Amino acid sequence: MNTRNVIIIGSGPAGLTAALxxxxxxxxxxxxxxxxxxxxxxxxxxxxxxxxxxxxxxxxDLMTEMRAQAEKFGxxxxxxxxxxxxxxxxxxxxxxxxxEYTTRSLIVATGASARLLGLPSERTLMGHGVSTCATCDGYxxxxxxxxxxxxxxxxxxxxxxxxxxxxxxxxxxxxDSFRASKIMxxxxxxxxxxxxxxxxIVLEIKDxxxxxxxxxxxxxxxxxxxxxxxxxxxxxxxGHTPNTALFKGQLELDAEGYVVTRDGAKTNLPGxxxxxxxxxxxxxxxxxxxxxxxxxxxxxxxxLDGIPEHLHT
Length: 313
Ligand code: NAP
Known about the structure:
It is built from seven helices and 19 strands.
C-alpha cells in the first residue's frame, strides 16, 4: 500500500487550509471530507468577517473557493468519511467504509458540531434567521427582536452581545436556573434589552412556509401553556460537541472531549496534529480555524522532515 505523507480528516476552513499549505509543500495531502463537507460554514449565509472580502462572501462559496485552491496545489479530496483510525503505531491507519489508507502524519480537523434543538423547522430555517453563531450573524438583526435559546455561558454571552444589534433579546431556557457562571448571569439580568423566559421549551420556529423566521412557539413546562413570541431571529446556544469519537483512547482529550494541542498544533502523539474547532472551544471562528490549519500543516511538514522515510512525492 502506498503510504501517504499527510492525511487530513475534515474539510472545513481548518482542514482545507492544512490541505492548501501541505499541498504547496509538495506533500500530496489526502483530504477525507467527512459527512458534513465544508463544515459549519456550509450552514451560514453571508460571512462578513472573512478578511479580504470587503462585501462579504457566502459561506458555501467561501468553502468552494478553499476547496478549489487546495486542489490547485495538489490536494486530493475524497467524498467519504472515516470510520476508524489507528494511531497506535506508525504509519497510522485510516479506514473509510470501503478503503484503507496508511499515512506518516495525520491532521485532525473534524470540527465541532453545534448542538441543535432537533426541530425540523430549525434545520429548514438555518441560515435564514436561525443561527448558531452570534459573532457571525448578529449584525443581520440590527433593530430587530430576536431570541436566544440556552442557559449556559454561551447563551449569556451571546444574549449580551446581540443586544448591540437587536432591539430586544428574549433569552429562553428550559429550566428555572441557569448553569452559566454568576457573573455572566448578572450581566444578563442587568441588561435592560434582555427579557428572560425560564421553564420554557421551544416547540417550533416559524415560518418555514415563508422561508424566514417570524416567531417562536414556546411551551411553559409547568403549566403546559403554549404561546408564540414574534422574533426575526433565533440563536441556538446550547453548546457544541467536538467530533472526537474516532480518537477516544488514542489522543489526549480534555474534560469536554476536545483534542488537547500544545506547542502549535501538536497532540500528545508525534505525527498527529489537530486544528480548528476540534481543539478550540474558545474562538470558533473560520479565520482562527484556518490559521490553526496552517499551523498544523507546517508542524506536519516539520515532523516529516525529521523522519527518514519521508518522501516529497
Ligand atoms: P453548556 O455549558 O453545556 O450549556 C448548554 C446549555 O444549553 C445548558 O443550559 C443546557 O440546559 C442547554 N441545553 C442543552 N441541550 C438543550 C436542548 N436540547 N434544549 C434546550 N436547552 C438545551 O454549553 P455552553 O454554554 O456552550 O458552554 C460550554 C463551555 O464553554 C462551558 O464550560 C462554559 O463555561 C464555557 N464558556 C465560557 C464562556 C466565558 O466564560 N466567557 C463563554 C462561553 C462558554 P441545562 O442547563 O438544562 O442542561
